[in-house]
Amino acid sequence: MITGNGSHIHLIEAQQEFEELCSKWRSEKFLAIDTEFIRTNTFYPKLGLLQIADTNNCYLIDPLCISEWSPFAQLLNLDIEFCIHSCSEDLNLLHTSISVMPREIFDSQLAAAFLGLGYSLSYQGLVKLLLGEEIPKDETRSDWLKRPLTDTQLQYAANDVSYLLALREALWEQLKSKDVLQWFEEECVSQTNLATEIENEESWKISYTMISNAWKLDDGSLSRLREICYWRELKAREKNKPKNWIAKDNDLFNIASIKQDLGTFSSANLENITLSDRRFVRRYGDEIVNLLNNPSMQQICVDRSLLNFPLRPALRKQLKACQSVVYSLAEKLSVAPELLARKRLLQNLVRDYESFGELRWEGDLSGWRKELLEPEINPLFG
Prior knowledge:
The chain is α/β, with parallel strands linked by helices. It folds into three domains: about 10-200, Nucleotidyltransferase, domain 5 (2-Layer Sandwich); about 205-300, Orthogonal Bundle (DNA polymerase, domain 1), CATH 1.10.150.80; about 310-380, Orthogonal Bundle (DNA polymerase, domain 1), CATH 1.10.150. It has 18 helices and six strands. It has a six-stranded mixed sheet, sandwiched between helices. The longest helix has 21 residues, at about 220-240. It is globular. The mean pLDDT is about 95.
């Protein structure tokens, strides 16, 4: 069996053969990588297939046949550039399943955005645009955990990775010619850091800032929201269930809004509020009551500057001015405006000005974005 571009397809279903390949790949400078997974009723994605391609061959590794991943983990730590398209889900999967991610990546979707080809151009669209090849997308919702995999599934999975090295060659030349290669490489590093940050327990502790209308709560209620959101992060991982299967955002908000003195919370308080699923009280009511009655609640600190509070009219005007700068600069550079700064980033920048009296070029707005945007946006704030 071969792919649409002539690569030979090899199905790997033995540990020894996999380890031999990992040893062989150690001499490569570039490898293409993709994954197929299922994530319908679990918190963590379930790996269904791992695809690796070199110049002439495409290898489909059946993870259900692999018991030892350390040879592959060692490979990812080498000075090999792994070519990938739309890396976030694949990196998160690698990080949570084998606890290692590639040291160096080339994200072809990100490269397309830097070249002004579109912010979230699909793999199929990019292959057609740059290589003139049509790739079917008819196995997207396949059951990748069912065995045996069909020939159609194997062909689809192989095509999903076999064009990546050719894309990388074409895109790299254009990035270099446009003089944006350094910015692109910096953003690829940021993407790998972000995948790690998702599983950083410290980030779970500020998950309350993502709850709609959290800004409406007083400090006591916001402290309760912080703790029950953190509890949900832990519980979802412990049970390996989607977070909204544990508790909906609105339910957490309603629980945090209960006006009750510390030490006096009871299951009756939970029974008397609106919940989308009454089974929540039966399953987790005792845990929530114990959590909210814990004396340590008095020491919980919250950061209101992180909340998504509405902007007052003057700041909304400044936000629009910032957006105009981004669109103008994106047009001048021929890049996707969303790549420069999405609205949420600019909102946070403006909120920082409201809270601290200065623009803080940190996190996603540091590095190459700061280099481009700071000289244009700082004057807007006097």
